[in-house]
Amino acid sequence: MFKFVLAVFLATQAVMSLPSPLARRSTGAWCDGLGGSAYDLAYNFSLSVVNSTLPNANSTGAPLVLNPQGQDSSGVATYNLATYNSQPDTIGIWPNFTLEHGTLLANYLADLSISPSGDETEVGGPVTLTSDANNSAKIYCGVADTDPEQGAPPLLALYTNLNEFSICHQREGGEADLLIYNATSSNSLYDYVSCYPVLVHLLYNY
Questions:
Q1: 25 - beta bridge partners?
Q2: Where would one find the signal peptide in this protein (predicted)?
Q3: How many CB atoms lie within 10 A of CB 151?
Q4: Cβ distance 135 to 124 under 8 Å?
């Protein structure tokens, strides 16, 4: 009986660690070097961050949401990602995300055809999305945790890196806690002293 219960438990943990049933393994360059559990197609997931060096308040981490940054002279809107606690006003507009062959999309449920998409992100800069579909960048990849003993959610990679994300407090143009790629003290947008390293998880809600 014990062996049966143990087998069921391990099988359940393995299933929980897998990506969405709609996810597929990727051969795209944006998943290079990330192993056989890398994939680049998934739908209707949320993003959260967990501190990779200190204990977290819960197992799922802090949710990430879009943080609008205004429009340029041609009307193209720019967004970055921030923690929900520091930017709680947008989750009802863009409630979840899609990963489509290397491109990250924030789902705008009123009209999915104009969902903001991931733009090129500079080293030391915030993770950025744009309303201009012509600037969509194929730079993201999901990586499933296939260890049944861990059962952790999949991770998000940017430029094939899983470990270059930080949360940093914005000090120019707002007060949000931003998701930064490869944080540096030379960027005045955020307070570098406030930064802490994080992993970005993909969470599927069924």
A1: 39
A2: 1-17
A3: 17
A4: no
Q: Is 35 exposed, middle or buried (0-12, 13-18, 19+ CB in 10 A)?
A: exposed
**Confidence band of 12 (pLDDT split at 50, 70, 90):** very low
pLDDT in tens, 131-166: 998 889 999 999 998 765 667 899 999 999 999 999
Question: pLDDT digit string (tens) for 23-71?
Answer: 446 678 999 999 989 999 999 999 999 999 988 888 889 999 999 999 9
Q: What percent of the chain has pLDDT over 70?
A: 84
DSSP β-ladder status, 117-118 and 62-71: unpaired
Q: Is the dihedral of CA 106, 155, 162, 62 positive or negative?
A: positive
